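Tutorial handout. Part one gives the primary structure; part two gives the three-dimensional structure as tokens.
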Amino acid sequence: MSVGAQDQGTGSRDHGVPIPAPAPARSLLLGVPKLGRRWPGVVRAGVAVGLPALAGVALGHSAVAATATLGAFAVVYGEGRAYRVRWRVVSIAAAVMVLLAGVGAAVGAFVHDATAAGGSALWGMALVLAMTVVVAVCAFVVDGLRLGAPGAFLPLLTVEISSALPALGVSVAEVTAWAAAGAVSALIVSMSGLIVRPRTPERAAVATAVAAVDTALSDGSSPGSRRDAVRSLHAAWQCLHDAALVGGDHPLTRTLRAAHLRCAATVDGVDADHASDVDDLRPQVPLPRPSIRYRLGRASHLRGRSWTIVARLLVACPAAGLLALGFGVGRPDWAVITAAMILHQGPDRVLGTYRGLHRFFGTVLGLVVLAVLSSLDLSAAVLVLVVAGLMAGIEAFLVRNYGLAMVFITPLALVLGSRGTHVDLMTVSRDRLVETVLGVAVALVVLWTVLPGSYRRILSDADEQVAATIGRLGDAREPAAVAELCRDLEFDLHASTTAAITAAHTDPAWTRDRWREHHHLHELGYRILTRHFGPRL
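Part two.
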């Protein structure tokens, strides 16, 4: 769900129906939401980086050991997942990181060799195009599967960092091997608690949901706290689904069921005409995710949001890279990753604009951190610990406040991309600031001008998909087919809610005109789900 949706909207003169408005600018720019107990994941991120890198330093590979960070990025993707599925998620992410580290290094070596032989600086466009393809594919998959943050960011960051290493004398094989070492570390660290406390992820998810509900139900609770409670409840149920605990009488299921009922009873009938997370909280257990095949098939609709994201990336990334080369910076990759990270998380113009501000100011503060690090004479082992600390900071803030995360991302990328050697701080800072300004500017222009009416197509497509799934449910007779279609319908209702929030942020007048139709379709969808599954809580 969109993080900027509020439960308080503005009234319509024609219908008197409120629609969602973005959260206040102060909240979006400076807010750091509480997302439960974060420190275990923060520690895991740091340890997954530190273990293989320190081992490499001890074995005499000080110059390249920190490259293991590229594979260790995979540890982030396991957070919040039950151990029953975590190993698979982290393994897939780790394989992707290792593959992309090799791809980035290979492209970087090609570009370096071509330019070193006297070739044009435009050979740098090979890296730009490689990064564009990577982020477009990853963004499509992440958005289609609704995986959420960190999304396509870390895969693209892996390509960006690894592409800089061949120019420093690191071979493609070395980059790939150290990334693989980090990937193994990520998997081991991610699964380290399985033997001692096998239910820790589920307990943490339920505890976070219960605490969020308690906050939402307290006196004077804000609409934002209700939204956070509903989001936490959905995340906890999915964690229990992953752990195969839903449907039984496990204590965690009973605890979450009680919190869900308390929250549902309170929000029932409150702000009923909003498109918010509250719309998707009914007195039934949320169903598990549909199959990967269904979700990717759903994303393949050309009218949907996933292709809109891809189209904007395909315009913005090459444009940002070409502009950076035109301004004479040494490498265009930072401009590309800047534009991509503003656009890859969705088509919402308001939230994308705030993300651009986060990117700029976070980069500036990150360069200050880099200046401090560059002034110190750090040993290889201490540098590894610094990189591990930066990785922990990324894990702590990437989902909560992108601007703060950039304070850690910027020095991490530059330290790894320079193999920890001292850099020409003035040149690096100048180039990074120029590239950041170019990337932000290009991203915002593309966000507001490329496919400007996409929010209408996205909402129409989402509502049409809800209606189509309802129609298929009406024709289904086999219990297994009905159950599968109900999972699909709930997923489609969530997608429709997200599309409605984006439309309301972008064009309130147009959204008001079709609000009743959208709301009635949602009510029909949830009545059908209730009829098939009943009040299962």
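Part three, for discussion. The longest helix spans residues 83-116. Confidence is low (pLDDT under 50) at residues 1-16, 270-275.
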